[in-house]
Specification:
Helix content: 10-25%
Distance between the termini: 19 Å
Oligomer: single chain
């Protein structure tokens, strides 16, 4: 799969750091999350605290595989923590989420991990697919 972001060094400190993360390729949506035609894009999904509530970033346009940082189209830096993969609670939450049906996500996390050389990433995948 060809990821649609630029690879470059990012020196910014992350505004958000996601744990239990995945990288998803998603479909564009319009008002009220109605599906729109157009190119799919990449987003980070994970939790920013210990409540295991899934947060989705805006479209990620730049990625630094050495520092595990991405920059969104809005300019915010997102860091990927050391715990990759949704927990059982997060998988169950995702299966019931409205965004799952509207965004039609495809998990491309393994491609990103391969890009980074798995440097310090602890993969712990819960059974099931979002």
């Amino acid at each position: 799969m060809n990821l649609s972001w630029e690879i470059e060094r990012i020196d910014a400190a992350p505004r958000f750091v996601l744990e239990h993360w995945q990288v998803l390729e998603v479909a564009p949506t319009g008002p009220c999350h109605t599906p729109l035609p157009g190119r799919r894009f990449l987003t980070f999904a994970g939790c920013t605290d210990h409540r295991e509530i899934i947060q989705l970033s805006p479209e990620i346009v730049l990625f630094d595989p050495t520092r595990m940082l991405g920059v969104s189209a809005q300019g915010d830096a997102y860091g990927l923590g050391y715990s990759c993969g949704f927990t059982v609670l997060m998988v169950n939450q995702a299966k019931k989420s409205f965004w799952r049906s509207t965004l039609r996500p495809r998990d491309v996390t393994s491609t990103v991990i391969a890009m980074t050389g798995s440097q310090g990433v602890r993969v712990q995948r819960a059974p099931g697919d979002i």
